[in-house]
User: Fold this.
Amino acid sequence: MNEAQQVDSGRAQTAHDEARRTLVMGILNVTEDSFSDGGRNPDTETALRHAREMIAAGADIIDIGGESTRPGATRVDPAVEEGRVVPVIQQLQHEECQTSIDTMRATTAAAAIEAGVDIINDVSGGLADPDMLRVCAEADVPICLMHWQAESFAGAEGYTDHGGDIVGQVRDHLSRLVDRALEAGVQERRIILDPGIGFAKSPDENWALLGATRQLVDMGFPILIGASRKRFLTALRPAPDGNPGTPDSADDATAAVSALAAAAGAWAVRVHNVAPTCAAVDVAHYTSLGSGPYVAEGWRARRG
Assistant:
C-alpha cells in the first residue's frame, strides 16, 4: 500500500498525521474543453510528458480526468472518457507514480481500478452514478467525496442558494455523503472529503470555506482543497478591462491558498502549477515543525 492509499486516519488523527506534509496533487486534464488547460494534452504521449513534468516539479499524486466539469460542459461518451485516461494511468503506474482518477462514472472508475489507480476522485460525491460507491467498496480503494449541490452533474456554472451558512451546509452535506459511503460498504479509513471550492458557489462562499479549512479538517477525514485557478482567485489580478484575469494569472494566489490550507491541516491540495505550490506547502510544513533542511553556515548561494 502506498502513501496515497494510506488515508486511514479516520476520525482520530494522530499527532504524526497532523505533522505530515500536505500532499500536492497535480491536475492532468486529458480533455478538449477544461477551463484552464483543455486541449493541452490531446493524446497519451503528450499527457504523459506533462505528468512527468509535474512529478519532476514535486507532485505527489497525478489526478487524471477525461471529462470536463467547466461551466457549460457536457458529458462525454463513457468509452471516450476511458480511452483518454486508462492508458495514462497504466503507464504512470508502471513508472510507480501515484494516481487518482477524476470521474463521476462507476464504469470509468472500475476501468481505472483495473489499470491500477490509487484513488477515485468523484466531484459528485458519489451521487451522479448509483454504482460508484459499490465499485469503490468492493475494490477497497480510497474515494474522495466532494460537495456539489446540483440538479444534474455536468458543468459547474451558476451559483446555488446554500441558505446563508455555507460552512454548516457543506459540513452537513459531506456528513451525509460519508453516511451513504459507509452504508455502501466503503471503509471509513478510505474516505477523503472535498468542500468543492468553485462548484456552484459564490466568491464569498469560496472565501468562507477556505477560511473554515480547519473546521473541515476537524470533521476527522483527510481534506482535499482544490481552488487552483478558480475565477474568484483570478479576480485578484483583473485584466485591463476590469474583468477577472486569465486562469494562470491566479497561480500566485493559488500557491498562497495552498500554504494556508496546508497550515490548516489539509491532507492535499489540487493544483495546475505544481512548483509554486510545492514551495508553499513546504514552507507551511517546516514552519509547523519549527525546523527545516540543514544549510551549512558558510554556504553562499551561487549567482548565475
About this structure: The first strand starts at residue 23 and ends at 29. The first helix runs from residue 15 to 19.
